[in-house]
Isomerase (Paenibacillus radicis), 281 residues
Amino acid sequence: MKVGMNLLLWTDKPNPSEHLKLLQSIKEWGFDGVELAADSMDAGDAKAFGLILKELGLGCTAIAALDASVADPASRDSRLRDNALATLKQAISNTHLMGAEVLCGPLFQGLGRFTGQGPQTDEWNYAVETLREAGRFAAELGVRLALEPINRFEMYLVNTLEEGVRFVKQVGLPNVGLLADTHHGNIEELNVPDAWRQAAAHIIHVHISENNRGVPGSGHAVTEEIFDVLKEIGYDGWLTIEAFGQQVPGLISRLHLWRDYSEHPDDAARLGVQHIRKHLA
């Protein structure tokens, strides 16, 4: 298993020149790679990141999320579905240009939209159709899509891995699977290790994220049992830390980050990688 670090701890707009020193630090802290937001990046920056990461000896995965007011695969508005597909294709292209093979995120639905009820059949089918088309485009570029079920407070279409398995089976493409996230599982699953065992055949990416989004190992979401089940199911992909703090203003209200969760803003990375390495040893 490879250990990655999501740059969303520091920025939601990664820039090749501005964040070169940060990438060097991530390498020095003991990470195998990084995860970069690919949906708002231009092609030139994606290419530049690819060259920098290769030079540093860092691998890469990519992440994307959709704003429901602009782009939503599950919307009844065809314009929002078209925008979602266009955004996903841009993110997929950037993923390829960065030299990454996995684009992950809660791509089932645009975030920030709630209707007061659970998913309706037509919404589900719209999302399946949109992700199937995105998945076909991704396959042409050698990119896999890791769809992330997230908690009920952020999305209503797909909250559990069981629902995610049903979704990707309907999409029916070998390069479309699931992202298992410890934070969201901590909220939605009755038993996280069992849920991961049941979905094992479809898990192609993992986020290590604490219950409070802080330092992995400081709470109760990232337990030894998580690593035991990954070894048990033969998982051999990325374990990417996804943590947040007060450093990215655009994420504070969206993710309800009302306080810092560690003494130093880099602790989630520096201490988190040590926690993961300890359990992988």
About this structure: The radius of gyration is 17 Å. The beta strands are 2-6, 33-37, 59-63, 102-105, 144-147, 176-181, 203-208, 238-241.
